Amino acid sequence: MTLEEAQRTALQPHYARTPDHRVTALRAHHDDDAMQIASAEVYPCHIKYPPGSAAHFSSGHTEITQFTLADRTVAAPGEG
Fold this sequence. Notes:
elongated
């Protein structure tokens, strides 16, 4: 089997927006619940990390790419 890249899609534009949306939703609707589950010490990390990662995605410092592989094996004559 020979695998080759069939398709590549850059996901940065989507990932740059997603962390900001998550923090906004968390603050607006789930602050109290999240703090009870995560603890008062851990919760601030969940609020600080996403905006920082969004900045890296927006700047191009961090790249996320989705790719699809396809089997490019050519069967010999008489094989399967």
